[in-house]
Design a protein that fits this description.
about 140 residues, alpha+beta, 6-stranded antiparallel beta sheet, 6 strands, about 25% helix
């Protein structure tokens, strides 16, 4: 695969398509099985509350991965992401109901870094329940 987005067609301020990612308790159980992270704060409401959390929370790496999908879906090639980092600012609280929570993600090209390498920096904003859940969320992407 190669990036489907051309460096020449992108400008600072270019917005990537926004996405919403639903998260339910079932989502967290599937992620725990895939990742091997069975920390009870991600599935046991009593335990989560006993340690001071408002309820069960989504895995930080799950939240990070969902936010990163906005970039990989846009560029068309996960291997085009050469750097990705976030700070976890607030947890995604997932109630025990049919609706769960939603992670809302927007992103935009914040800088063209290197004409020769054809790289850009994408700044990502991820929120849930009107709270920013990731801070300083950025990806460096090599474009076509």
């Amino acid at each position: 695969m190669t990036a489907k987005v051309s460096y020449d067609d992108v400008e600072v301020g270019t917005e990537l398509p926004a996405q919403e990612f639903p998260v339910t308790r079932a989502t967290l159980v599937r992620y725990a099985g895939a990742s091997g992270d069975f920390n009870p704060i991600h599935w046991n409401e009593k335990f989560a509350k006993d340690v001071g959390l408002p309820d069960v929370i989504a895995h930080g790496m799950f939240t990070m991965a969902e936010a990163g999908r906005v970039v990989t879906d846009w560029v068309g090639d996960p291997a085009a992401v050469v750097e990705y980092g976030v700070r976890f600012t607030k947890p995604v609280v997932v109630p025990n109901d049919e609706k769960g929570s939603v992670i809302e993600v927007t992103a935009k090209v914040a800088a063209k870094l290197d004409d020769e390498a054809r790289t850009v920096r994408v700044d990502i904003t991820a929120t849930s329940a009107d709270q920013k859940v990731l801070g300083r969320s950025r990806a460096v992407v090599r474009l076509a």
